Amino acid sequence: MEKVAGIGGLFFRAHDPKPTSFSPFPETTKYFGDPNKAWMVNFRVHDLDKMVAQLRAAGIEVKAPESHAGIGRFTRLHDPEGNPIELWQPA
């Protein structure tokens, strides 16, 4: 069974993201998808393909993974309330 390896980050929208010790996205970011959702958690995984297959086998809708040079591979799913959850396999 594939398991989460750790937390890659907890991301949230902020009106003024510069004077904070976290790494917020701008309040207007489109990265989270639904503009009514204010946060997103990112989990690191060892094998993104295995994790996606496992989630889909359980009936969970997961987007097709995308690669980002030098960063790794990502995919997205949502919790029961529609909050985005990102899975990340580091490069």
Major sheet attributes: 6 strands, mixed
CATH top-level class: Alpha Beta
- Count of domains: 1
Order of helices and strands: EEEHEEE
The proportion of residues forming helix, as a percent range, comes to 10-25%
What is the CA-CA span between the terminal residues? 21 Å
What does the average pLDDT come to?
89
Tally of DSSP β-strands: 6
CATH topology: 2,3-Dihydroxybiphenyl 1,2-Dioxygenase, domain 1
CATH homologous superfamily grouping? 2,3-Dihydroxybiphenyl 1,2-Dioxygenase, domain 1
Strand content: 35-45%
**Sheet/helix structural class:** mainly beta
Description:
The structure is a single chain. The protein has 91 residues and is mostly beta strands. The chain has a single domain, classed as 2,3-Dihydroxybiphenyl 1,2-Dioxygenase, domain 1, CATH 3.10.180.10. 11% of the residues lie in helices and 41% in strands. It has one helix spanning 48-57, and strands spanning 4-14, 25-26, 39-45, 66-68, 72-78, 84-90. Strands 2-1-3-6-5-4 form a six-stranded mixed β-sheet. A hairpin with a 3-residue loop joins strand 4 (66-68) and strand 5. It is globular, with a radius of gyration of 14 Å. The mean pLDDT is 89.
